[in-house]
Amino acid sequence: MSFVSQLNALDAGAPLSPLLTGFRSLLEPLSREELESLAARSVTTTRRNFGRTMRLFAPLYLSNECVNNCSYCGFSRDNPILRTTLTVPQVEKEARHLSQLGFRHILLVAGEHPRFVSEGYLADCLSALRDFIPTLAIEVGPMETPEYEPLVRSGCEGLVVYQETYDRAAYAAYHTAGPKKDFDWRLECPERGYAAGFRRIGIGALVGLADWRTEVLRLAAHLEYLLRTCWKATFTISLPRLRPAAGGFQPEHAMSDAEFVQTLCAFRVCFPQVGIVLSTRESESLRNALFPLGITSISAGSHTEPGGYTGEGSNDVHLTVKGRRVELEPETPRSSCSGGATNATGQFDIADERSAGEVASYLREIGLEPVWKDWDSAILSTVSEREKEPFLAGSDSLLLTS
Ligand code: SF4
C-alpha cells in the first residue's frame, strides 16, 4: 500500500487520525490572542527540539529546460524563455562560489527534461561536488528507485519533491502537458526515494492552487504516513506561496500572512521533530518574523536561474521551441523573450534579496545560530557497518557548526 490509497480514502471521507484531527482544529480561524498563544507554543516546541539553530542552504539551478507545462512555473515548455543547461565544470564553479560564501548544503534544482538532466548527468554533478559540499540534495523530475540508487551512491543524501497540490482536479487543471500529469506517480515519489536510500526527504505543497486548509491537511496526512512507513529518514515540509511567474500566472487561492504563520505554527506543534523550510519567495520582513517561530531551514541569497551566481552558462543561452533548440539571432533584443534578462530566465521572483551573509548576521542579532554544516561523511568512517542504520535514523539531531 502507498499513500495513494490513503489519500483516496481521505478524499472519500475516511475519518482523520487523532493527530490530524488536532492539526485540523489548529487551522480554524483564530483570534489575535489565540494566534499569539499558538505562536508561543511553537517557539517553545522549536527550542526544545532544535535549540536556537537555523540551517542555511542554497539552491543551485542546473537547467531550466522542461518537458512539462505547469501553469504556475516560468520554466514551462511553452514559455518562450531563455534556457540553458550548465556543464559539469560550470556546476562546479557555481558550487565553489557558494562554498566561498559559506554554504555547505546545496540543493541541485532542474526542470524535468531527461535528455538534458539524465541520472548520469546528475551523478557526474554530484561526484564533482561531494568532496567540498558535505550535504547535497536534489529537486528534479521524479524517477524510479533504481534510477535514484546511483545518485545516492554518488553522495546525494536529500530528495525534495513537492506534490504541488493534493487536489486531483486542481492538479489536472494546472499540469496540462508532460509526464508530470500523472498525479499518482508524483505522489509515490518520496516512497521510491526512501527505498533508494535518501536519508533526508522534503515534501510540500504550493499554496495558491487550491483551498489552502484542505491542501495543508492533505500535506499533514502525507507527512504522518511517511513518518510511520519511512522511519529511517528525516523529513522536512515546505509551503511555498506562489508568486507571479513567466507566462502571466497569478495565484487564485490566497493565504494571508496571518494564515501562513498559523499554518507553520500548527505544523510545528503537531510535528515537533519535523524540519520546516522557508524560501526566499517570502518578503524580508515576513521571513524575519517567522525565523524564531518554528522555521529550521532557510535558503538565502538565492538565484533561480542556471548560472545565476556566477554568470556561467550565459554563453549557451537559447530558446527551445517544440523540443528543438533555437539559436537567438544576434540582433534579437533579449528583452523580447525574457523580460530583459541577460542570462537564462529564472523560475520565479525572489522577494527577500538579502545576501547569505546579511541573513546570517540578522539571525545572530536575534539570538539564533546559523548552521552552515551539520554533516560530514567522515563521521560514518568511524562507525562500523552494523552501527550505521540507527545512527543514520537519528542523525538530524546532530549539528556541527563551522
Ligand atoms: S514546476 Fe517543474 S516540472 Fe513544472 S514546468 Fe516548472 S520546472 Fe517544469
Mind sketching the topology for me?
Elements: H1 3-11, H2 18-26, H3 32-50, E1 53-63, E2 69-70, H4 88-101, E3 105-110, H5 119-129, E4 135-139, H6 145-153, E5 156-160, H7 168-174, E6 175-177, H8 183-187, H9 189-196, E7 200-204, H10 212-229, E8 234-238, H11 257-270, E9 275-278, H12 284-290, E10 297-299, E11 319-321, E12 324-326, H13 335-338, H14 356-365, E13 369-371, H15 378-381, H16 385-393
Parallel strand pairs: 1-3, 1-10, 1-13, 3-4, 4-5, 5-7, 7-8, 8-9, 9-10
Antiparallel strand pairs: 2-6, 11-12
Helix pairs in contact: 1-10, 2-10, 2-11, 3-11, 4-5, 5-6, 6-9
Bound molecules: iron/sulfur cluster.
Describe the structure.
By secondary structure, this protein is an alpha/beta fold. The protein has a single domain, classed as Aldolase class I (TIM Barrel, Alpha-Beta Barrel), CATH 3.20.20.70. It is built from 16 helices and 13 strands. It has helices at 3-11, 18-26, 32-50, 88-101, 119-129, 145-153, 168-174, 183-187, 189-196, 212-229, 257-270, 284-290, 335-338, 356-365, 378-381, 385-393, and strands spanning 53-63, 69-70, 105-110, 135-139, 156-160, 175-177, 200-204, 234-238, 275-278, 297-299, 319-321, 324-326, 369-371. It has an eight-stranded parallel barrel, surrounded by six helices. Strands 2-6 form a two-stranded antiparallel ribbon. The protein has a two-stranded antiparallel ribbon with strand order 11-12. It starts with a helix and ends in a 9-residue tail after the last helix. Mean pLDDT is 91; it is low at 335-340 and 390-402. The structure holds iron/sulfur cluster (SF4). Iron/sulfur cluster binds at residues 66, 68, 70, 73, 75-76, 111-112, 180.
